[in-house]
Amino acid sequence: MKCFKYLASVILVSSSLSLAYPAKPVKAQVAYGSYVGVGGTVGVSDGTQIGGVLAVRYKLLETPISFRTQALIGESTAVVPMVSYDVPLNWQTDAYLGAGLVLAGGDNPSPVGNKISFALQPGVDYMVPNSNTVIFGNAIIAFDAYREKSSTALSVQGGVGFRF
Hints:
52% strand, elongated, 1 helix
């Protein structure tokens, strides 16, 4: 009987505390962490061009904004600085849309053209749990990206990064 009174008092106190302090809904936040990564790129607009990518993301804490830059190395090199808006899909995964410039030059086209142009970058970052590893994938759509012709360039990138 004494045990029953103790159990009843614990249940009464815990239920009154839960009424006094109701649980707040939990929302996923944008995955924290800046990273540096390497991977591959495939340019698919002016014939297929395979190359490498060096990617950097600098995450602004407590805001869904990131600064991103990718260097695409193929027949020629292009640097693509972006500002992105990050949307959390869950605790480890962000989808994002970036806007910026393709800084390319030279006679041979890079995976995203050979002219300075405006670009959009949809992508996904996945932060591997319990590690500093990031898996990233994105596409770069560069508008009016070629000197010889007025056409759009498209490249797809993917790789692995180290979060810091």
